Amino acid sequence: MPRVHIHPVHVEFGDCDPAQIAYFPNFFRWYDAASRHFFESCGVPPWRELERSVGIIGTPVVEANSTFVRPTSYGDSVEVHTWVDEWREKSFVMKYRLMRGGVLLAEGRDVRIFAIRHPDDPSRIKAVPVPEDIRRLCE
Amino acid sequence: MPRVHIHPVHVEFGDCDPAQIAYFPNFFRWYDAASRHFFESCGVPPWRELERSVGIIGTPVVEANSTFVRPTSYGDSVEVHTWVDEWREKSFVMKYRLMRGGVLLAEGRDVRIFAIRHPDDPSRIKAVPVPEDIRRLCE
Amino acid sequence: MPRVHIHPVHVEFGDCDPAQIAYFPNFFRWYDAASRHFFESCGVPPWRELERSVGIIGTPVVEANSTFVRPTSYGDSVEVHTWVDEWREKSFVMKYRLMRGGVLLAEGRDVRIFAIRHPDDPSRIKAVPVPEDIRRLCE
Amino acid sequence: MPRVHIHPVHVEFGDCDPAQIAYFPNFFRWYDAASRHFFESCGVPPWRELERSVGIIGTPVVEANSTFVRPTSYGDSVEVHTWVDEWREKSFVMKYRLMRGGVLLAEGRDVRIFAIRHPDDPSRIKAVPVPEDIRRLCE
User: Fold this and answer.
1) Neighbours of chain C (3+ CB pairs under 8 A)
2) Cα of C21 to nearest chain B Cα, Å
3) E strand map for C1-139
4) pTM exceeds cut of 0.90
5) Do β-strands D92-100 and D56-58 pair in parallel, antiparallel, or remain unpaired?
6) Distance between A71 CA and the closest CA of chain B, angstroms
């Protein structure tokens, strides 16, 4: 069983669109926040510290998906349940379930890399192998 | 050949994250803006008018995905190339290619419905068949 | 002494900009969320219910200010302390103090109205006198 | 007469809130984008280049305010008219007028500094005197 982190989210007025429901790109913001909180809960230092120590600037997303099952709106308290579904050599897969009480609102999945700045061009980024020590903290 | 709409985007400082690159949920904002501009360019009235006339509140996304091929940052002028890839009975599929000059930065795809408010519960939404007149405008 | 509401905020990676600090328009998002939570904590129904019952669509901001004293970044847990500083006939003034522990990060102030849709033009909004029952709930 | 830059903005569905109007923190995003485009139009290099050459990470806002005169909604094409209203020794004042055709929608003003990372603590920032060469480019 993978380690699961639960990240609470308050859906705000400003997260909602003229259809009165949470605007779907915000679900990806919530998944992304949940992903960082997952690493934080595992004891991984903030990216800004890792950038200084080992050059890792974060875990950029190379692919992101979500299905949207039921809408949510401001005033709702929801939770993102998050875990690493698969560790690969140079990437990993995270999954997300957005829940309101026991009701599933949305399911997400993304593929992420650990990235450093490209040595030849700081405007580009470059994947590095998944650091063994970080992986161990998260299992 | 489907009708393609090209939507220009200026990547702004506030669209970028501490890794100095555009934050990925913003790609979905850009795809979504491109989708609305696609309909606007086809002559479809704003959702707020359709809500008053036929009850349609917009085209909520039921599934979204994107791959992120190359990063972009503030100062970049990019374009979203958008088209309807498939019309189904109660949904449709849009595709997006985010380009900087001739370079592909990201590819998106989403599945959308035409929605009205649920007659029994205004906090929920309900798919209606793709309106024939809207589809004709967009082909 | 006015009633003060304390609204907790987790500063996320996606709230921060390439300078590695929270992007200042997000402070206004947090103030606005704190404002709505203030009303919720006072027992005022959600705007979507008030829209149906008395036509009030919310408390649009007619003026907003903030000073930014110290930056904050992702991983910080902060709090917005919020109160109504002044009730006027057709508007009211809210104040906000963004705190990290005992340290002041920013101070905000906005002027808001209670608004209904304009009877002649639904794309415009119109101030109504501050509802006496809402004001009583909030004092 | 100060140099004025005009920055076009398309108001998008995702910029609007459940009251069907543009969510006010987005006005500050637009002002901020207009500010950067102002500097770009004057020939000032991107902050990411200045950070590498002289350590300047941008022009953080130390105070921001706006009045909101008329709402705007998705589908609107608006413009931000921007200029430097005052140069001080260690800060400067920018003004913004958000226009739809000849109609004023909002007026903004902010106070900004040129900032470097604090030499003793990279999580803090520090104002430097307004660089003479940048000021000359902008007058």
Assistant:
1) A, B, D
2) 8
3) 5-10, 56-58, 61-68, 77-87, 92-100, 103-112, 114-118, 121-128
4) yes
5) unpaired
6) 7
Identify the residue among A6, A59, A74 best suited for mutation to test binding to C, counting C beta carbons within 10 A and taking the highest: A74
**Helix D25-41 to helix C25-41 angle, to the nearest 10 degrees?**
170
Helices (H) and strands (E) in chain A, counts: 3, 8
Sort out which chain C residues have CB atoms less than 8 A from B122's CB and list them: 48, 52
Tokens 């100062």 correspond to B75
A10–C33 C-beta distance less than 8 A: yes
Report helix angle B25-41 to A25-41, nearest 10: 170
In chain D, which residues have their Cβ closer than 8 Å to the Cβ of B58? 13
ipTM surpasses 0.90? yes
Could D18 and A20 be called an inter-chain contact, meaning their C-beta atoms sit closer than 8 Å? yes
Secondary structure element (H or E) that encloses residue A66, with its range: strand A61-68
In the numeric block, the tokens 């919530």 are attached to: A30
B38 to chain D: which residues are within 8 Å by CB? none
User: For position D122, what pLDDT does the model report?
Assistant: 74
Within a 10 A sphere around the Cβ of B13, how many other Cβ atoms?
Answer: 24
Domain architecture of chain B: domains with CATH: 5-138 (3.10.129.10)
User: Mean pLDDT per segment of 10 residues, for chain D of length 139 residues?
Assistant: 95 95 97 97 92 92 97 96 97 98 97 93 87 94
**B13–D20: do the CB atoms touch at under 8 Å?**
no
Q: Which of A10, A14, A36 is facing C74, going by the closest CB pair? A: A36
Distance from C-alpha of A102 to C-alpha of B20, rounded to nearest angstrom: 38
Mutate to test the interface with B, among C11, C13, C15, C17 (most CBs of B within 10 A): C17
Phi, psi of A50 (to 5 degrees): -65, -30
In the sheet that holds C56-58, the strands lie side by side as C56-58, C114-118, C121-128
- At A66-108, the pLDDT tens digits run 999 999 999 999 999 999 999 999 999 999 999 999 999 999 9
